[in-house]
Specification:
- It is built from 12 helices and 7 strands.
- The chain has 341 residues and is α/β, with parallel strands linked by helices.
- The chain folds into 3 domains: 5-99, ATPase, nucleotide binding domain (Nucleotidyltransferase, domain 5, 2-Layer Sandwich); 113-205; 208-328, no CATH class.
- The strands form 2 sheets. Strands 3-2-1-4-5 form a 5-stranded mixed β-sheet, sandwiched between helices.
- The radius of gyration is 25 Å and the shape is globular.
- One of its GO terms (molecular function) is transposase activity.
- Residues 8-146 form the Transposase IS110-like N-terminal domain.
Amino acid sequence: MKLRTISVDLAKNVFQACGVNEHIKAQFNKKLKRSELLDFMGQQEPTMVVMEACYSSHYWGREMAKLGHDVKLIPAQHVTPFVRGNKNDHNDAFAIAEASQRPYIRFVPVKTEFQQEILCLHRIRERLIKNKTALSNQSRGLLSEFGVVFPCGQKALLGGLNSVINNAEYSHRLQNMVIDMLIEYETTLKRLKGIEQQLGIFVEGSESGKILLSIPCIGLINASALLASIDKGQAFNNPKEFAVWLGLTPKQHASGNISKMGGITKRGDRYLRKQLVHGARSVVSRAAKNTDALSLWATKLRVTKPFNKVAVAMAHRLARLIWILLTRQESYSATPTGVST
C-alpha cells in the first residue's frame, strides 16, 4: 500500500492516524494509543507525516523523523477550513492530510530539544516577571493600610520592606509577613538573574547571536528568543514573509476597486512580536538624539504619526533587517546620515 501522506491528530493519550494515497483517498483512519503510535509509524514506509503545530508536536516530529519520515507541522488555523461534518478526531485527521496538499501552505520547522529548552526559559521568565509584578503591587497595597508608602521601583520596594522589618513600631505579625514577602521577592529576582545568565551564554556562544546583538533594540532576551524560534530565518524566502509571520503587516480588506488597510494582523508568534515592539519603542524614544539613518527615519515619521504607530513601523522595519542580516550572516552597521536604507 503506497501512501503519499500520513496525518496524525495529536492528543494526550489517544491519537488518530490517517493515511492517504496519491489521489488523497483515505487508506486507513484509525485510533492509536500513545504507547502504540511510534510502533505503528515504524511499520510504515518512510513518507511525509503531517501534524498540527500544537501541544507536543515538536517532540513527536523529532521521534518520527528518527524513523525516516519527512515530518511537516502545519498551523492549526489552516486545517479548520478543511474539516467536513462534525468535529471529531476522524474528520480532523483527514482534514490535516487535505490541508497539507495546498500549494501555498507554510509549514512550521520542527524545533530541536535545545531550541525548546531556550524557549522554555523564556516562558518561565515571563511567568516570574508576572509574579514579581503581582508581589510588588500586593506588598504596596497591603502596607499602605499601615501608612507605609514608598516610591515606585525595585530599589524603593526593597528599601520599604526592610524599613518595616527594622522598625520596632510594627507588630511581629506584620514584620513576619513582610519578611516572607521580601524572601519571595529576592528569590524571584535571583531566579530571573539565573535565567538571563543562561540566555546570555546561549547568545554569546552563537555567531548568529552576535549578529543580532549588533542590531538596535536587540539585547540578550530578544536575541535568544529569535534564535530559538527562527534560527537563521531559513524557513522564510524573503524579509516580507518574516514580517508577515510576526503579524507586523497591516490587515487588508479589498473588493473591486476599493482597498482598505487596517491595523496589524497580529498573526504568528505573539511573544516575539511583543518583544520586538518593546525593543522598537526604545529605538524610537532615543531617535531624536541620534543621527544615523534609522533614527532620522523614525524622527521624520514622528512628525505626522503618534508614538505607538511609529514603534510598530520600526518593529516591522527591524524584522526585515533581522532576516536580511541572519541570512547574509553579516553584522549591522549604522548607515551614515545622507545614505538611504
